[in-house]
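ok so dumb question maybe but i'm new to this and my supervisor (M.) told me to 'just get the structure for SDR family oxidoreductase' and walked off. so i did the thing. is this what she meant?? sequence i used:
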Amino acid sequence: MVEAVQGAGVVVTGAGGGIGAALARRFAAEGARVVVNDLDADKARSVAEEIGAVALPGDASSIVAEARDALGGTIDVYCANAGVGTGGSEAAGEEAWARAWDVNVMAHVRAAEALVPAWLERGSGRFVATVSAAGLLTMVGAAPYSVTKHGAYAFAEWLSLTYRHRGIKVHAICPQGVRTDMLDATGSVGDLVLRPTAIEPEDVADALFKGIEEDRFLILPHPEVAGFYQARAADPDRWLVHMNRIQQKWEENR
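this is what came out, is it supposed to look like this??
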């Protein structure tokens, strides 16, 4: 059991399935009191009933006050997990870009705005952002997703550097492929880039809890991403040539 989460009040957004459901199950198994949020009310209630949690369906951007009440007045851990895997190019359309920005970035910002004052007052709090390796690297065929996941990572990084000396802990989870409905929705590009090394949602939860125990900001369920990130920083042009080859391979086979 991880002492830091025993008895904690935890909110997990996008927890009706996939990574969110795995996180909710793991927090409950570790003795936390959990609020399960999802836009799909039936899925939220199903997971909550399974683990003895509270279901709170609705938009992840606006649930903090209600979740705090459901947990008896205090949120100790907030998992900003809800996200959209918007594909497409620069021509994806204003609506697609706006939705990706709103869900993948601004929902995190709004949650932090509602959470941070109370956390600063008491000197503790934990913000967990499910980002993606795309936030450190990029994703072929998915400009809105890649750009907004970079934003989600940057915001988590900013939160950590700004408030860590005041008791707020931040974790950014950056997996590659995970066997979820979102992976299935990526189609041929996901089959090429992500599926060969895809892991289970429970593996992501394991990586997060190991990171909590070790007090680490960056959580890499695929450890090899660290090497890719270093290569990108060390020689951006070489890395872009490599990624462009993947782009060309995808174009040839889709």
